[in-house]
Protein backbone atom coordinates (compact mmCIF):
# COMPACT_ATOMS: atom_id res chain seq x y z
CA UNK A 1 0.00 0.00 0.00
CA UNK A 2 2.81 2.38 0.98
CA UNK A 3 4.88 1.48 -2.10
CA UNK A 4 1.94 2.26 -4.37
CA UNK A 5 1.15 5.55 -2.58
CA UNK A 6 4.72 6.93 -2.26
CA UNK A 7 7.57 7.30 -4.72
CA UNK A 8 10.69 6.11 -2.88
CA UNK A 9 14.33 6.81 -3.78
CA UNK A 10 16.42 4.75 -1.35
CA UNK A 11 19.70 6.06 -2.85
CA UNK A 12 18.90 9.49 -1.40
CA UNK A 13 16.64 8.15 1.40
CA UNK A 14 13.85 10.17 -0.16
CA UNK A 15 10.08 9.54 -0.37
CA UNK A 16 7.16 11.74 -1.35
CA UNK A 17 3.49 11.42 -2.27
CA UNK A 18 2.85 12.96 -5.70
CA UNK A 19 -0.97 12.67 -5.30
CA UNK A 20 -1.26 14.30 -1.89
CA UNK A 21 -3.86 17.01 -1.55
CA UNK A 22 -5.93 18.47 1.28
CA UNK A 23 -9.53 17.30 1.43
CA UNK A 24 -10.43 20.54 3.21
CA UNK A 25 -7.98 23.42 3.69
CA UNK A 26 -6.75 23.67 7.31
CA UNK A 27 -8.38 26.44 9.29
CA UNK A 28 -5.60 27.10 11.84
CA UNK A 29 -1.83 26.81 12.27
CA UNK A 30 -2.19 24.00 14.80
CA UNK A 31 -4.11 21.94 12.24
CA UNK A 32 -1.39 22.51 9.61
CA UNK A 33 1.30 21.32 12.06
CA UNK A 34 -0.73 18.23 12.95
CA UNK A 35 -1.27 17.28 9.28
CA UNK A 36 2.45 17.82 8.49
CA UNK A 37 3.52 15.57 11.41
CA UNK A 38 1.09 12.82 10.35
CA UNK A 39 2.25 12.90 6.72
CA UNK A 40 5.93 13.01 7.77
CA UNK A 41 5.42 9.97 10.00
CA UNK A 42 3.89 8.02 7.11
CA UNK A 43 6.75 8.96 4.76
CA UNK A 44 9.44 7.91 7.27
CA UNK A 45 7.58 4.63 7.88
CA UNK A 46 7.47 3.97 4.12
CA UNK A 47 11.27 4.52 3.84
CA UNK A 48 11.91 2.20 6.81
CA UNK A 49 9.70 -0.56 5.30
CA UNK A 50 11.57 -0.30 1.99
CA UNK A 51 14.96 -0.47 3.73
CA UNK A 52 14.06 -3.62 5.67
CA UNK A 53 12.98 -5.27 2.42
CA UNK A 54 16.49 -4.92 0.95
CA UNK A 55 18.99 -7.80 1.26
CA UNK A 56 21.14 -7.35 4.35
CA UNK A 57 24.26 -8.77 5.96
CA UNK A 58 24.60 -9.56 9.65
CA UNK A 59 26.87 -7.44 11.84
CA UNK A 60 27.39 -7.16 15.63
CA UNK A 61 25.84 -3.68 15.49
CA UNK A 62 22.85 -4.89 13.45
CA UNK A 63 21.90 -5.68 9.84
CA UNK A 64 23.70 -3.69 7.13
CA UNK A 65 22.13 -2.99 3.74
CA UNK A 66 23.68 -1.56 0.59
CA UNK A 67 21.71 1.36 -0.81
CA UNK A 68 20.92 1.29 -4.53
CA UNK A 69 21.97 4.05 -6.92
CA UNK A 70 19.91 7.24 -6.52
CA UNK A 71 17.25 7.92 -9.11
CA UNK A 72 16.38 11.54 -8.23
CA UNK A 73 18.68 14.24 -9.59
CA UNK A 74 19.33 16.84 -6.93
CA UNK A 75 20.24 20.38 -8.04
CA UNK A 76 23.80 21.68 -7.52
CA UNK A 77 24.94 25.25 -6.94
CA UNK A 78 28.37 24.64 -8.55
CA UNK A 79 29.23 22.46 -11.53
CA UNK A 80 30.91 19.11 -10.95
CA UNK A 81 34.71 19.43 -10.63
CA UNK A 82 36.55 18.39 -13.75
CA UNK A 83 39.08 15.57 -13.45
CA UNK A 84 42.62 16.80 -12.89
CA UNK A 85 45.06 16.01 -15.71
CA UNK A 86 47.87 13.59 -14.73
CA UNK A 87 51.22 15.10 -13.78
CA UNK A 88 54.51 14.27 -15.53
CA UNK A 89 55.46 11.88 -12.74
CA UNK A 90 52.10 10.12 -12.89
CA UNK A 91 52.48 9.66 -16.65
CA UNK A 92 56.04 8.35 -16.19
CA UNK A 93 54.99 5.98 -13.38
CA UNK A 94 52.12 4.63 -15.48
CA UNK A 95 54.46 4.08 -18.44
CA UNK A 96 57.06 2.26 -16.33
CA UNK A 97 54.53 0.38 -14.23
CA UNK A 98 55.54 2.01 -10.95
CA UNK A 99 52.87 1.60 -8.27
CA UNK A 100 52.53 3.88 -5.28
CA UNK A 101 53.02 2.10 -1.99
CA UNK A 102 52.55 3.36 1.53
CA UNK A 103 55.76 4.04 3.45
CA UNK A 104 56.27 3.99 7.18
CA UNK A 105 56.57 7.36 8.90
CA UNK A 106 59.45 6.29 11.18
CA UNK A 107 62.80 5.05 9.84
CA UNK A 108 65.81 3.73 11.75
CA UNK A 109 68.74 6.16 11.61
CA UNK A 110 72.07 4.33 11.63
CA UNK A 111 74.06 7.47 12.46
CA UNK A 112 72.28 8.16 15.76
CA UNK A 113 70.93 4.66 16.42
CA UNK A 114 67.37 5.88 16.95
CA UNK A 115 64.07 5.91 15.08
CA UNK A 116 63.34 9.21 13.35
CA UNK A 117 60.80 10.70 11.00
CA UNK A 118 61.17 10.14 7.30
CA UNK A 119 60.46 13.81 6.53
CA UNK A 120 60.27 17.07 8.45
CA UNK A 121 61.97 18.26 11.60
CA UNK A 122 64.59 15.94 13.17
CA UNK A 123 64.33 13.60 10.20
CA UNK A 124 66.54 10.66 9.29
CA UNK A 125 69.87 11.43 7.55
CA UNK A 126 69.65 15.08 8.54
CA UNK A 127 72.54 17.25 7.37
CA UNK A 128 73.03 18.65 10.87
CA UNK A 129 73.72 15.11 12.20
CA UNK A 130 76.54 14.42 9.72
CA UNK A 131 79.87 15.51 11.28
CA UNK A 132 82.14 14.18 8.51
CA UNK A 133 81.58 13.69 4.77
CA UNK A 134 83.92 11.38 2.92
CA UNK A 135 85.76 12.97 0.02
CA UNK A 136 85.25 11.66 -3.51
CA UNK A 137 87.74 11.36 -6.30
CA UNK A 138 85.79 13.91 -8.31
CA UNK A 139 85.85 16.56 -5.56
CA UNK A 140 88.01 19.59 -6.20
CA UNK A 141 90.36 20.76 -3.44
CA UNK A 142 89.14 23.72 -1.43
CA UNK A 143 85.41 23.05 -1.89
CA UNK A 144 83.13 22.83 1.12
CA UNK A 145 81.17 19.53 0.95
CA UNK A 146 78.49 20.82 3.35
CA UNK A 147 77.91 23.89 1.15
CA UNK A 148 77.62 21.61 -1.89
CA UNK A 149 74.98 19.49 -0.13
CA UNK A 150 72.96 22.61 0.72
CA UNK A 151 73.28 23.83 -2.86
CA UNK A 152 72.05 20.49 -4.25
CA UNK A 153 69.13 20.44 -1.85
CA UNK A 154 68.15 23.99 -2.83
CA UNK A 155 68.28 23.11 -6.53
CA UNK A 156 66.05 20.06 -5.93
CA UNK A 157 63.49 22.18 -4.07
CA UNK A 158 63.47 24.75 -6.88
CA UNK A 159 63.00 21.98 -9.46
CA UNK A 160 60.06 20.53 -7.51
CA UNK A 161 58.44 23.96 -7.22
CA UNK A 162 58.88 24.51 -10.97
CA UNK A 163 57.24 21.16 -11.72
CA UNK A 164 54.38 21.97 -9.35
CA UNK A 165 53.70 25.27 -11.09
CA UNK A 166 53.78 23.55 -14.47
CA UNK A 167 51.22 21.02 -13.28
CA UNK A 168 48.98 23.84 -12.02
CA UNK A 169 49.23 25.58 -15.39
CA UNK A 170 48.14 22.40 -17.17
CA UNK A 171 45.22 22.00 -14.75
CA UNK A 172 44.23 25.66 -15.23
CA UNK A 173 44.00 25.19 -19.00
CA UNK A 174 41.27 22.57 -18.63
CA UNK A 175 39.65 24.33 -15.64
CA UNK A 176 40.52 21.65 -13.08
CA UNK A 177 42.44 23.60 -10.46
CA UNK A 178 42.22 22.33 -6.87
CA UNK A 179 39.65 24.09 -4.73
CA UNK A 180 42.19 25.52 -2.28
CA UNK A 181 44.19 27.02 -5.15
CA UNK A 182 41.02 28.50 -6.67
CA UNK A 183 40.11 30.15 -3.36
CA UNK A 184 43.63 31.48 -2.81
CA UNK A 185 44.12 32.84 -6.32
CA UNK A 186 42.68 36.32 -6.68
CA UNK A 187 43.17 36.46 -10.42
CA UNK A 188 41.43 33.14 -11.11
CA UNK A 189 37.70 32.70 -10.38
CA UNK A 190 36.40 29.68 -8.49
CA UNK A 191 34.43 28.33 -11.44
CA UNK A 192 37.33 28.77 -13.86
CA UNK A 193 35.08 30.16 -16.59
CA UNK A 194 35.85 33.89 -16.44
CA UNK A 195 38.82 35.46 -18.14
CA UNK A 196 41.87 36.67 -16.26
CA UNK A 197 41.61 40.42 -15.59
CA UNK A 198 43.76 42.83 -17.57
CA UNK A 199 47.05 44.16 -16.29
CA UNK A 200 47.03 47.20 -14.02
CA UNK A 201 48.04 50.41 -15.78
CA UNK A 202 50.55 53.01 -14.59
CA UNK A 203 48.03 55.43 -13.07
CA UNK A 204 46.36 52.72 -11.00
CA UNK A 205 49.74 51.56 -9.72
CA UNK A 206 50.62 55.13 -8.70
CA UNK A 207 47.30 55.43 -6.84
CA UNK A 208 47.91 52.17 -5.00
CA UNK A 209 51.46 53.23 -4.12
CA UNK A 210 50.17 56.57 -2.84
CA UNK A 211 47.56 54.91 -0.63
CA UNK A 212 50.16 52.50 0.75
CA UNK A 213 52.56 55.37 1.50
CA UNK A 214 49.96 57.45 3.32
CA UNK A 215 49.24 54.49 5.60
CA UNK A 216 52.61 54.96 7.34
CA UNK A 217 53.05 57.17 10.41
CA UNK A 218 54.94 59.84 8.47
CA UNK A 219 52.44 59.85 5.59
CA UNK A 220 55.10 58.56 3.19
CA UNK A 221 57.52 61.42 3.89
CA UNK A 222 60.43 59.17 4.87
CA UNK A 223 59.65 56.23 2.57
CA UNK A 224 62.23 55.23 0.00
CA UNK A 225 61.27 56.57 -3.41
CA UNK A 226 61.47 54.46 -6.53
CA UNK A 227 63.25 55.80 -9.62
CA UNK A 228 60.82 58.05 -11.49
CA UNK A 229 58.27 58.15 -8.67
CA UNK A 230 56.51 61.48 -8.24
CA UNK A 231 56.23 63.16 -4.83
CA UNK A 232 52.98 62.51 -3.01
CA UNK A 233 50.25 65.14 -3.08
CA UNK A 234 48.34 65.30 0.19
CA UNK A 235 44.87 66.79 0.07
CA UNK A 236 44.79 67.46 3.80
CA UNK A 237 47.27 69.16 6.09
CA UNK A 238 49.19 66.89 8.41
CA UNK A 239 50.44 67.77 11.88
CA UNK A 240 54.15 68.26 12.27
CA UNK A 241 55.83 66.61 15.22
CA UNK A 242 59.23 67.16 16.76
CA UNK A 243 61.84 64.49 16.07
CA UNK A 244 61.65 61.57 18.50
CA UNK A 245 65.45 61.22 18.70
CA UNK A 246 67.55 63.92 20.34
CA UNK A 247 70.03 65.67 18.09
CA UNK A 248 71.53 69.00 17.16
CA UNK A 249 69.04 71.82 17.59
CA UNK A 250 66.58 69.73 19.58
CA UNK A 251 66.67 72.04 22.62
CA UNK A 252 66.25 75.18 20.55
CA UNK A 253 63.21 73.71 18.80
CA UNK A 254 61.55 72.79 22.09
CA UNK A 255 62.31 76.23 23.59
CA UNK A 256 60.92 77.98 20.51
CA UNK A 257 57.76 75.90 20.54
CA UNK A 258 57.23 76.45 24.30
CA UNK A 259 57.66 80.21 23.98
CA UNK A 260 55.21 80.27 21.09
CA UNK A 261 52.56 78.46 23.12
CA UNK A 262 53.07 80.67 26.20
CA UNK A 263 52.93 83.90 24.19
CA UNK A 264 49.72 82.75 22.55
CA UNK A 265 48.10 81.94 25.90
CA UNK A 266 49.23 85.18 27.57
CA UNK A 267 48.05 87.35 24.68
CA UNK A 268 44.57 85.80 24.69
CA UNK A 269 44.01 85.33 28.43
CA UNK A 270 46.27 87.92 30.03
CA UNK A 271 43.54 89.17 32.36
CA UNK A 272 42.98 85.63 33.66
CA UNK A 273 46.57 84.45 33.77
CA UNK A 274 48.22 87.50 35.50
CA UNK A 275 46.56 88.93 38.66
CA UNK A 276 48.88 91.70 39.95
CA UNK A 277 47.17 92.18 43.32
CA UNK A 278 47.25 88.49 44.10
CA UNK A 279 50.89 88.28 43.08
CA UNK A 280 51.86 91.22 45.37
CA UNK A 281 50.00 89.73 48.34
CA UNK A 282 51.69 86.37 47.85
CA UNK A 283 55.08 88.12 47.68
CA UNK A 284 54.44 90.04 50.92
CA UNK A 285 53.31 86.90 52.73
CA UNK A 286 56.41 85.03 51.65
CA UNK A 287 58.61 87.97 52.72
CA UNK A 288 57.04 88.10 56.18
CA UNK A 289 57.47 84.33 56.63
CA UNK A 290 61.11 84.63 55.67
CA UNK A 291 61.71 87.47 58.15
CA UNK A 292 60.05 85.53 60.98
CA UNK A 293 62.15 82.47 60.22
CA UNK A 294 65.34 84.53 60.24
CA UNK A 295 64.29 86.18 63.53
CA UNK A 296 63.71 82.81 65.17
CA UNK A 297 67.06 81.53 63.96
CA UNK A 298 68.90 84.64 65.26
CA UNK A 299 67.19 84.38 68.69
CA UNK A 300 68.05 80.72 69.10
CA UNK A 301 71.66 81.36 68.09
CA UNK A 302 71.99 84.23 70.66
CA UNK A 303 70.53 82.00 73.41
CA UNK A 304 73.06 79.30 72.61
CA UNK A 305 75.91 81.82 72.81
CA UNK A 306 74.81 83.06 76.25
CA UNK A 307 74.52 79.50 77.54
CA UNK A 308 78.06 78.74 76.36
CA UNK A 309 79.41 81.85 78.14
CA UNK A 310 77.64 80.96 81.41
CA UNK A 311 79.02 77.42 81.22
CA UNK A 312 82.58 78.68 80.76
CA UNK A 313 82.27 81.07 83.76
CA UNK A 314 81.00 78.35 86.10
CA UNK A 315 83.78 75.97 85.06
CA UNK A 316 86.46 78.63 85.80
CA UNK A 317 85.05 79.34 89.28
CA UNK A 318 85.04 75.66 90.15
CA UNK A 319 88.69 75.23 89.20
CA UNK A 320 89.80 78.27 91.31
CA UNK A 321 87.97 76.98 94.39
CA UNK A 322 89.75 73.62 94.11
CA UNK A 323 93.15 75.35 94.07
CA UNK A 324 92.48 77.34 97.29
CA UNK A 325 91.38 74.28 99.25
CA UNK A 326 94.71 72.54 98.58
Folded structure, characterized:
The protein is mainly alpha-helical and 326 residues long. Among the domains are: 7-65, no CATH class; 151-187. It has nine helices and six strands. The strands form three sheets. It has a two-stranded antiparallel sheet with strand order 1-2. It has a two-stranded antiparallel sheet with strand order 3-4. Strand 3 and strand 4 form a beta hairpin. The termini are far apart. The model is unreliable at 187-194 (pLDDT under 50). One of its GO terms (biological process) is endonucleolytic cleavage in ITS1 to separate SSU-rRNA from 5.8S rRNA and LSU-rRNA from tricistronic rRNA transcript (SSU-rRNA, 5.8S rRNA, LSU-rRNA).
Short description:
With 326 residues, the protein is mainly alpha-helical.
**Sheet with most strands:** 2 strands, antiparallel
Rg of Cα set? 49 Å
Structural shape: extended
Fraction of residues in H or I helices: 40-55%
Structural class: mainly alpha
Which consecutive residue ranges, at least 5 long each, have pLDDT under 50? 187-194
DSSP strand (E) fraction?
A: 5-15%
Helix-strand blueprint:
Elements: H1 2-5, E1 7-9, E2 14-16, H2 29-52, E3 56-57, E4 64-65, H3 88-96, E5 106-109, E6 114-117, H4 145-173, H5 179-184, H6 202-214, H7 250-268, H8 270-273, H9 276-325
Antiparallel strand pairs: 1-2, 3-4, 5-6
Family: Belongs to the RRS1 family.
Region (Disordered): 55-88, 119-164, 276-326
Biased composition (Basic and acidic residues): 146-164
Amino acid sequence: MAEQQYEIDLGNLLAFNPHHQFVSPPSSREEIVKVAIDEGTKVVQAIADALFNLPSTEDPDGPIVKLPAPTTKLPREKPLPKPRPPTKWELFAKKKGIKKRKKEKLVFDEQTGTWKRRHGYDRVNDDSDIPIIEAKSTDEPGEDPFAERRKEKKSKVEKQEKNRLQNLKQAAKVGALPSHVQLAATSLPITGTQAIPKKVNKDELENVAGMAATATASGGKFDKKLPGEKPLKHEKKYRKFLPAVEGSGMGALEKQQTEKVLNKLISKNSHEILNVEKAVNMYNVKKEKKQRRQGRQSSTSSKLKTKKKDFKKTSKKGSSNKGKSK
